[in-house]
Write a structure and sequence with these properties.
- It is a single chain.
- The termini are far apart.
- The radius of gyration is 21 Å and the shape is globular.
- It has two domains: 29 residues; 270 residues, TIM Barrel.
- The N terminus is likely disordered.
- The chain has a nine-stranded parallel sheet with strand order 3-2-1-9-8-7-6-5-4.
- By secondary structure, it is an alpha/beta fold.
- Strand 6, helix 8 and strand 7 form a beta-alpha-beta unit.
- The chain has eleven helices and nine strands.
- Bound molecules: magnesium ion.
Length: 302
């Protein structure tokens, strides 16, 4: 064999090996046929207003009848109704999933009082979240409308990483986490993509700082699959809604396709919650069972 031919064939073989040994390449190249299911589980969670019932007991009865065992309270409700939530959970299979925000102020505020308000109220919610064994407290670094905000530059990112380190260690000591939520550009230009949130978690380097993906905001992503793969061990929570109008999954017809994202969740062995954060166009008692059927079918397909 001529040297030139040897080099050529080695390169081809090498490239083949590299592709074959790369999990990402093998999953994306034959995604529809490959099930990289590392023990992933579809654990569904509802927020307070997902269900139409009035009392928590009625809501929890309904959720259990549907096989839904995660509950995501708002942070404000967690503080004001802690005993009620705790009592209603007793003797049930339902557990608290993440806590949806609820703090005042914001972490990137340029006003010391607003930053202090965030530090105080966020820690109160973290304390309660730990006591009720929640997976974490969801936070957004700064909504577009929150001003004055630190500028979107390297110094601010460094500041955020340092602040999150303190907050993450605090959460960890209380048995919970803080979960960064990327939104879309219309709501939070500072943090828009799951991979960026995951990179912040990596740089913070605390087991108390995690991130999440929200299928609604993931309109920012070029690939649901790649977004979840990029977050891997940092992915602590997922929000789901219909993909055209942010209503209940299935209400936007063919737009409501989560298979690519679910494939990503399966590939990383995701076992945390997929939690409904959405409105409803129709009758909740009909739409919710339809949504669950769609999601469970697509999870199987993924
Ligand atoms: Mg969300």
């Amino acid at each position: 064999m001529e040297r030139r031919d040897f080099i050529k064939s080695s390169l081809v073989a090498g490239a083949g090996l590299a592709v074959a040994s790369s999990p990402l390449a093998s999953m994306t190249s034959c995604a529809p046929c490959c099930k990289m299911d590392k023990g992933a589980q579809l654990n569904i969670s509802f927020q307070k207003y997902t269900t139409p019932q009035q009392t928590l007991a009625e809501k929890f009865d309904y959720m259990e009848s549907l096989g839904v065992f995660g509950y995501e309270p708002h942070g404000g409700d967690l503080l004001s109704q802690f005993n009620e939530i705790e009592q209603n959970l007793r003797g049930r299979n339902i557990k608290v999933s993440a806590i949806c925000a609820g703090f005042s102020g914001f972490i990137l505020s340029e006003e010391p009082e607003k930053k202090q308000l965030f530090d105080t109220t966020m820690r109160e919610i973290i304390d309660a979240a730990g006591q009720i064994h929640s997976t974490g407290v969801i936070m957004v670094p700064a909504f577009n409308g929150q001003v004055p905000c630190r500028p979107h530059n390297q110094q601010t990112r460094d500041f955020l990483v340092e602040e999150l380190k303190n907050l993450g260690e605090y959460a960890l000591q209380r048995g919970t986490t803080v979960i960064l939520e990327p939104l879309n550009r219309k709501e939070c230009f500072f943090l828009r993509q799951v991979a960026d949130a995951a990179a912040i978690c990596r740089d913070v380097n605390s087991d108390g700082v995690k991130c999440m993906g929200d299928f609604w905001h993931m309109q920012e992503e070029t690939s649901d699959f790649a977004a979840f793969i990029s977050a891997e061990k940092y992915l602590q929570h997922v929000h789901i809604a219909s993909r055209g109008t942010r209503n209940t999954p299935s209400e936007d017809g063919d737009l409501d396709n989560y298979v690519d994202g679910f494939r990503g969740l399966k590939a990383i062995g995701y076992k945390n919650y997929v939690s409904f954060e959405c409105g409803t166009k129709g009758d909740k008692l009909q739409v919710i069972p339809a949504a669950l059927e769609l999601i469970r079918k697509q999870w199987e397909e993924a």
